[in-house]
Amino acid sequence: MKLLDGKLIADQIKTEIATEVKEQFLDKGIEPPHIAAVLVGEDPASLTYVASKEKACHEVGFVSSVYRYPANITQEKLLEVVDFLNADNEIDGFIVQLPLPDHIDEHVIIERIDPRKDIDGFHPVNLGKMVLNLPCFLPATPYGIITLLERYNIETAGKNIVVLGRSHIVGTPVSILLSRKSNPGNATVTLCHSYSKDIPAIAARADILIVAMGKQGFVTADMVKQDAVVIDVGVHRVPSTETKSGFRLMGDVDFDRVSRKCSYITPVPGGVGPMTIVSLLRNTLRAAKKEVN
């Protein structure tokens, strides 16, 4: 078993981005890429994610701004914030951190974002272009997954890939990306969800298994083919007496047992998470270079 080390690959890509920022922006007296995040409420996972994004931005020489609002902000006020960021020429790309409070329709918010600044890749324009294999901002987590496969030279052409979970953030877009005529891609992809029957049997046939179910320890060893590649997108905080924080992070996969059967597997933490953040940086750099119109 070998680890798909997302932190290692993300650090390599951040070094590449930092070099490009210096050469293409700073050395020419051009303002570096500017990324913004809108944070609503005090969701612990969202706070951690945005803090990690800020740290990564500083490491590569980006400018980073965070706009914080209380959980009771109205939808109308949040739309005004989006309009402001759309119009601010100093900001190359921004995200509205999800999930949003229940009284706000996240689809309305996402559709208000200028597709040219939609570095999360969630706007219907970017998703539609992704399906057609046109230049666009790819959703950050799927982008990170395919980059991880590419950097580790894992063959996807002709492989049987099973994706567990059909969210518009991970499952659906990654299933499309890996079935496209591209590299990574050209795979036969099965997308499973809550209505799928006999998921364990389907998963056990996968050469590459991508798990984004949001259920801790959902994938057990009997669901994994010998020498399969397993990518675990799940992140769950569980109590622990072995850490100073009092908790540890676990994924959707029973890592200890499943890893014994895998050829490659992502750890949690340190797998998909760092790749998601570095994918946002890559999208922001493309936005600053006006590569997506």
Summarize the structure in words.
- With 293 residues, this protein is an alpha/beta fold.
- The chain has 2 domains: 29-114, Leucine Dehydrogenase, chain A, domain 1 (Rossmann fold, 3-Layer(aba) Sandwich), CATH 3.40.50; 140-273, NAD(P)-binding Rossmann-like Domain (Rossmann fold, 3-Layer(aba) Sandwich).
- The protein contains 10 helices and 11 strands.
- It has helices spanning 6-24, 44-60, 75-87, 106-112, 124-131, 140-151, 171-179, 199-203, 255-258, 272-288, and strands spanning 2-3, 34-40, 63-69, 93-96, 160-164, 188-192, 208-211, 229-232, 236-239, 247-250, 264-265.
- It has a 6-stranded parallel β-sheet with strand order 1-11-8-7-5-6. A 3-stranded parallel β-sheet has the order 3-2-4, sandwiched between helices.
- Helix 2 (44-60) links the parallel strand 2 (34-40) and strand 3.
- The chain starts with a strand and ends in a 5-residue tail after the last helix.
